[in-house]
Amino acid sequence: MFTLTNLPLLAFGGSFLPSSDGDRSRPRLTVMRDVAKLAGVSHQTVSRVLNNHPNVRQETRLRVLEAMQSLNYRRNLAARTLVTRQSDTLGIIGFETTLFGPASMLYAIESAARDAGYLVSIASVRDLERRHVVEAVDRLTQHAVDGVIAIAPKLTVTSALAQAPPSLRCVAVGTAGQSDAAPTVGIDNAAGACLATQHLLDLGHRTVHHVAGPADWPEAQERVEGWRGTLYAAGAVVPPAAPGWWDAESGYARGRTLAADPTVTAIFCANDRIALGVLRALHEAGRRVPEDVSIVGFDDMPDAGYFLPPLTTVRQDFRELGRRALTLLLEHMSGDSTTDRVLVAPHLVPRASTGPPPSR
Amino acid sequence: MFTLTNLPLLAFGGSFLPSSDGDRSRPRLTVMRDVAKLAGVSHQTVSRVLNNHPNVRQETRLRVLEAMQSLNYRRNLAARTLVTRQSDTLGIIGFETTLFGPASMLYAIESAARDAGYLVSIASVRDLERRHVVEAVDRLTQHAVDGVIAIAPKLTVTSALAQAPPSLRCVAVGTAGQSDAAPTVGIDNAAGACLATQHLLDLGHRTVHHVAGPADWPEAQERVEGWRGTLYAAGAVVPPAAPGWWDAESGYARGRTLAADPTVTAIFCANDRIALGVLRALHEAGRRVPEDVSIVGFDDMPDAGYFLPPLTTVRQDFRELGRRALTLLLEHMSGDSTTDRVLVAPHLVPRASTGPPPSR
DNA sequence: CTCCAAATTGTTAACGTTCACGCATTCAGA
DNA sequence: TCTGAATGCGTGAACGTTAACAATTTGGAG
User: What integer pLDDT is reported at residue B179 of this predicted model?
Assistant: First the structure.
């Protein structure tokens, strides 16, 4: 077969024709009419070939393709967008995209979108204040995106999506819980927390402490619940879980407190960065990992396997998350999906930071 | 003053007018003509107001703005792009954007672009093969971007940019060395390496070992040269520098070799992740940091201050890099810049992983 | 008051596609 | 052989904006 996509990429954006008559200041691009003239057909037929319309004789189709190739024709997407109202562009609302998780989702979405024939435009938000999100959606709609994926860890975002024009399909990814405003794709945080906690209990620990993420982040909350639920089910004591931020500094601060308590033998951290801080606190307090205390993280960020010691953690497949989000968005755009919620299962990556509790 | 930007954001993408006459299947958006009619002027005047054309009487300007507001008018950018050939969109060619550095640059570029009134579209490349880069530029030009910033650590990319249509301005960021294909923005790697090496020499180390990045990455090469030059200048012995990849695994592998050599007292690592691997290797070999061996990294990635021990490193200001790239691109687009190369100075962040050599 | 230049506004024609038609031509079935 | 549908292609007319130019109004100097 002989399609558009294997045209040679010798020059970009179409070549220029020798300006036929009235010399304009800006050079004229090759357009459908030029192709049509060369192929001896009407511009409409060229359009049909471009859009794979069935009712074109094979012979003329080839003639048109040949003409396109020799003129290095590129279709003008702005003109197409003007009339069809679709831009082959998707919008992404990004938050904290410098961090590994969001950055991975962004990348995964973009890759998948490209394979589906879309370009992605990005509108980052500094914080999750509603008006910033609204403004981001606005910028994207102004640029006529065909759909939006929000990397949205908090519900403020999903609810802001509800204000988008009804024709604009939106999906939220990296989100905990459901929302009636938009379909969501997220990881099963409770299951992940359960995995981590159960792993530690199975090793023989009496109970498991938890260094939580921010209290107002649903994902952090779900992890707390998964941890707590597992302890309940096992009949173990449930220690208090002090919330904090997602970084090592916060883990370090709370790690120092935990390190001072000799009864603590197992700690589940809400993410790997927190775990890094806890590791340092334990080290400074002279408590060995995993001989004295076992640690489990969450995320499996790059190089978590090179912490001291290599970190046992719950792996989030961010790339899968991104892919699923795109698939869901496309399904909703084509109207043949009513899925509201996609959950991706995390899994445990056992490494050297966990072991049986010290024998008393 | 009373501008477009403080229109209320109650609805997106313009409201719909009650379909005046012939009922079409798709709802009609508010367009300039509607605004014009309401304000009692011609559509061209509306256009002038929108583009801040000077020759509009203040009174009519206000009337038009009011009409726009009450109709919640949004201009159709596709139509605008069709005629002006500019899209208010910039393209970014991304590589390895899941990593902290590139992700930060991406974010910084996007933020700065937004402030300048641009939306950014992103085209990622899986690897730096020339045809992939060419294809990425092609996708962006097809979507009529006004300029391109490539996050381009290797020269294959900058040279591929040379194939872009001449009217399309391109800038490369995160690049070592100069290129005649496009202006480049980069960090002063040699200076950074010098900072690190000199810091160790100043502490009293006889020489400094280096765990390098990939041999075919110019940035890694510049760091090697900065390190080597500093040693030369100080009259110190220059040990061989084994290259590797940018990650902890690679650092660990080469760290094991270095750890086995008792004469090694100072190691400069090409980045923080490598340093993490080296730290683990030293730890496993029973060599203490910084008492026995001092370590310096490069990047200052998040949480480098929570390694064991907290890592002394050379900080790259990725956000500054991104901002400078955008500024440079805009200057080149407006034609009033001939700057070819922007260098950003890194600086040393001393932490706990460096100290004087052990006294024999 | 008159007249010319500047300031302000309107008219018409692009920009490059797709859509809604309409006109030939082909082909199957009676 | 004729009919009617299906196939293949062409002809305007949108889509919503800006550019170019023409027309009108304004303001000040003579």
Answer: 81
CA–CA gap between residue B119 and residue B112 (Å, rounded)? 10
Mapped onto helix, strand or coil, the DSSP state of residue A171 is strand
Which residue ranges in chain B fall short of pLDDT 70?
Answer: 1-28, 360
The model's pLDDT over B58-94, given as tens digits with 9 standing for 90+, comes to 999 999 999 999 999 999 999 999 999 999 999 999 9
pLDDT at A356: 97
Residue written as token pair 């480098």: B304
Average pLDDT of the residues in A304-322: 96
Sheet of strand B184-187, all strands in order from the earlier edge strand to the far edge = A341-344, A184-187, A169-173, A147-151, A89-95, A119-125, B119-125, B89-95, B147-151, B169-173, B184-187, B341-344
pLDDT confidence band for A27 (50 / 70 / 90): low
Q: How far is it, in rounded angstroms, from Cα B343 to Cα B3? A: 38
B94 touches A: beta carbon within 8 Å: yes
Q: Could you tell me the distance in Å between the CA of residue B359 and the C1' of nucleotide C8?
A: 85
**Does pLDDT of A231 surpass 60?**
yes
Contact (CB<8Å) A306/B121: no
pLDDT number for residue A26: 53
- Helices and strands (H and E) in chain B: how many: 12, 11
Per-residue CA distances from A177 to A185, A190, A341, B46 (Å)? 9, 11, 8, 45
The position carrying tokens 């719909």 is B16
What's residue B26's pLDDT?
Answer: 54
Contact between chains at B119 and A143 (C-beta distance less than 8 A): yes
Which tokens belong to B191? 């200076």
Q: Distance between CA atoms of A304 and A288, rounded to whole angstroms?
A: 18
In chain B the beta strands, taken as DSSP E runs, fall at 89-95, 119-125, 147-151, 169-173, 184-187, 209-211, 266-269, 294-299, 312-315, 341-344, 347-349
Q: Is A347 on the interface with B (CB under 8 A)?
A: no
Q: What angle do CA A278, A281, A282 make, to 5 degrees?
A: 85
- Tell which phi-psi region holds residue A19, choosing left (phi > 0), alpha (psi between -120 and 50) or beta: beta
- By the 10 Å C-beta count (0-12 exposed, 13-18 middle, 19+ buried), A259 is classed as buried
Q: Which bases of strand C have any atom within 7 Å of the beta carbon of a protein residue?
A: 7-12, 14-20
Q: Smallest Cα–Cα separation from B172: which of B88, B109, B246? A: B109
Contacts of B72 in chain A (CB under 8 A): none
Peptide bond into B262 cis (omega under 30): no
- Rounded CA separation B278/B269 (Å): 8
For helices A100-115 and A318-333, the axis angle rounded to 10 degrees is 40
Which has the minimum average pLDDT: A7-16, A67-76, A238-247, A254-263?
Answer: A7-16
Give me the pLDDT at residue B235, please. Answer: 96
Q: B82 — alpha (psi -120 to 50), left (phi > 0) or beta?
A: alpha
**Would you call A134 and B249 a contact, using CB atoms and an 8 Å cutoff?**
no
Q: Considering only alpha carbons, which residue of chain B is nearest residue A252?
A: B306
In whole angstroms, how far apart are CA B189 and each of A233, B177, B180, B353?
55, 10, 20, 21
Q: Are A307 and A353 in contact (CB under 8 A)?
A: yes
Tens-digit pLDDT profile for residues A28-86? 689 999 999 999 999 999 999 999 999 899 999 999 999 999 999 999 999 999 999 99
d(CA A238, CA A86): 53
- Between CA B360 and CA B342 the distance in angstroms is 45
- pTM value is 0.90
Contacts of B119 in chain A (CB under 8 A): 121, 123, 139-140, 143
Q: State the Cα–Cα distance between residues A79 and A260, nearest whole angstrom.
A: 67
Q: How far is the CA of B113 from the C1' of C12 (A)?
A: 36
The answer to whether B124 contacts A107, with C-beta atoms less than 8 Å apart, is yes
